[in-house]
Amino acid sequence: MDLLVLDLFHYWVFAVLLMIGFYAVIAKSNLIKKLIGLSIFQAAVFLLYITMGKVEGGTAPIIQAGIDNAVFSNPLPQVLILTAIVVGISTTALGLGIVVRIKEEYGSIEEHDIQEIDRR
Amino acid sequence: MIDWSVHLPALQVIVPMLTAPLALLLRPRGLAWAAALAASLFAFAIAIMLTLGVLNGQTFTYQMGNWPAPYGIELGVDAFSALLLLVITGASALALLGGRRSLDADIEEERQPLFYAAWLLALAGLVGIPVAADAFNVFVFMEISSLASYVLIAGGRDRRALPAVFKYLIMGTIGATFYLIGVGLIYLMTGTLNLADMALRIQEVADQKPILVAAGFITIGLALKAAVFPLHVWLPNAYTHAPNVVTVFLGACATKVSLYLLLRFDFFVFQPNLVGHELQFSYFLMPLAVLAILIGSGVALFETNLKRLFAYSSVAQIGYILLGASLISAAGLTASVVLMFNHALAKGTLFLAITCLAMRHSGLHLNNIADAAKHMPWTMGAFVVAGFSLVGVPGTAGFISKWYLITAALEQGTIGIALIAVIVASSLMALVYVWRVIEPAYFGDAKPDAQDFETATTREAPSVLLAVTWVAALANIYYGLAPSLPVTLSSNAAEILLRYVP
Fold first, then answer.
1. For this UniProt entry, which segments traverse the membrane (chain B) (predicted)?
2. B140, B169, B180: residue with CB nearest A91
């Protein structure tokens, strides 16, 4: 049982981070905390991609003179995740920008307060 | 002579994407709008050329940078994507053409270049999804279009748009991330991202758990993006508080693109390979579709804000589209794809007419538009045509889609009868909520005061906007009487989708 847990360690990291992030998005009322939760949620998925590109004993996929039987890790997930990280950063930045505008217009960044103000 | 038609799929995305930074630099008033309109019209022309090619039996595949398919990035256009491209680029061109005055009122002048740049990026992202044939590129295009549409929705003066957009951002990102998890799991098992290649390689591992989990994540993620009931909660407020012209554009095509992707992914990758997936698909989505139809129409019955009323009606229409797809038959899928086209026409026209109304009426509340037909007979005329198209009155485009949907349901035996009952009931509800707008507008007894009465003749909406609204309204009638274009494309699309289904 112990071994199974350790073998799948990276999946556990992924699942636990995913749930922490998801919990924050759903349960927190503070808009900034929601966004941080969203970032954690996305970071978990990035880690899932990064770990699956790793080949046991593999090195960085760079061709070097004199070494012709090297085992390379798969570079594609890293390339993909670089793109996804940029998307994630843009989302967080845009979200924070919207929070700033909400604070300017409503004077609060608590979800309950905003709903209360709109209801009036 | 270089054959330019080869490059059309790439140009479709590249033209709006490259015009976006250009629009940012165009400072004098109106130039950014002109650039955005020119790019939209150009994209529309490309979409028409692609559609004509597809109708002639051509299939477009395009290898970016000449890298061959499973390794390089592939673009492809077939009947299904051509229909979507027509809807997206057409909606963008019409909304921009007619919406200039309305946007001038909604967007501050110094922010306009930024706004039009965001518009072009949204357009590029939306057309990118039907064009891309690669699961990861689809994710990138999806996020480009989503990020840009958050900006568009929050761009107006209505502060209630901000919390609405925040909710949309949170839910949209969760949806996209779920999709990314699903794609990651499939990549983990198959080592490919190209959809066609994925469909082939997934066969060997189709019985393994991660593929099933991936199917779940992708379905839920895309359902969130497509506002499938009960994941639609972001939609009504986002559409209601967005600038009117943005509602025209996004209301016509944004959710349809996610539905397109949901259908394409499911029917291409999962249906042929997962045992019993078609049953799971229809058992899971059919009840949701029925609930969406009934609850969406039901809520619309009691809404008093015009835009929110029709946003809820969109939830119901998404239900229709899903209902057709969940029948897993050629007739059902044809109905579903025809619905995408015809609903875009009807809803686009309705929101255009609402934009006309908003130019002359301060609040879009049902009580405020009493007597609108006296001041704005042309606007209300277009509204009536589009409303009837939404209900499904014979002679309008909406009738064609309802007809196909009911024919497809009839093939299903007993359950089909129940589904037809649902469709008829919700069509009646649609008649009621459209009538709730028409009734005060034509027969309302608001007493106009003296000076209002004198200016009554000059209160019609700006002529360009009105002309565009009528073009869209006449398209509703045209495609109701001569539906061969959407129907041919849709039945071809259904054939493509069902090709691999056992």
1. 6-26, 33-55, 75-98, 114-132, 138-156, 168-190, 210-233, 245-263, 283-302, 309-331, 337-359, 380-401, 413-435, 464-481
2. B169
Q: How far apart, in whole angstroms, are the C-alpha atoms of residue B90 and residue B111?
A: 25
pLDDT of residue B456: 47
Could you tell me the two tokens for B380? 């209300």
CA distance B267 to B334: 14
CA–CA dist B209, B402 (Å, integer):
38
Q: Nearest CA to B246 among B174, B317, B166, B161?
A: B161
Residue B266 DSSP class = I
Based on its alpha-carbon atoms, the radius of gyration of chain A, rounded to whole angstroms, reads: 20
Nearest CB neighbour to B181, from listed A48, A77, A94:
A48
The reply to whether residue B188 touches residue A52, judged by beta carbons under 8 angstroms, is yes
Mean pLDDT of A6-23: 87
The pLDDT of residue B447: 53
Entry field: residues in chain A: 120
Contacts of B67 in chain A (CB under 8 A): none
Report the distance separating Cα B72 and Cα B81, nearest Å.
20
Structure tokens at B43: 């994209």
Token pair for B127: 């057309």
Nearest CA among B17, B437, B501, B34 for reference residue B269: B501
For residue range A33-87, list pLDDT tens digits in order.
Answer: 999 999 999 999 999 888 887 777 777 778 778 777 778 888 888 888 999 999 9
Domain coordinates of chain B in residue numbers?
A: 279-501
Domain boundaries, chain A: 1-54+72-119
Interface membership of A99 toward B (CB under 8 Å): yes
Residues of chain B with confidence (pLDDT) below 50: 1, 449-457
Residue B139 in contact with residue B180, Cβ under 8 Å?
Answer: yes
Q: Residue A98 has what pLDDT? A: 93
Residue B193 with chain A: CB contacts under 8 Å: 80
In a mutagenesis test of the B interface, which of A40, A92, A98 is the best target, namely the one with the most B β-carbons within 10 Å?
A98
- Between chains, do A99 and B166 touch, taking CB under 8 Å as contact? yes
CB B344 within 8 A of CB B248: no
Report ipTM for this prediction: 0.92
Query: Residues 6 or more apart from B422 whose CB is under 8 A from it?
Result: B290, B293, B294
Question: Tokens for B13?
Answer: 């995305």
Q: Running DSSP on this structure, what letter comes out for residue A101?
A: H
pTM over the 0.80 mark = yes
Phi, psi of B446 (to 5 degrees): -65, 130
Å from B166 to nearest chain A CA?
Answer: 7
CATH architecture of A1-54+72-119: Orthogonal Bundle (1.10)
Give the DSSP letter of residue B231.
S
Identify whether the C-beta of residue B329 lies closer than 8 Å to the C-beta of residue B411: yes
Gap from A11 CA to chain B (nearest CA, Å): 11
Contact B165, B154 (CB under 8 A): yes
Residues A82-113: tens digit of each pLDDT = 999 999 999 999 999 999 999 998 888 888 88
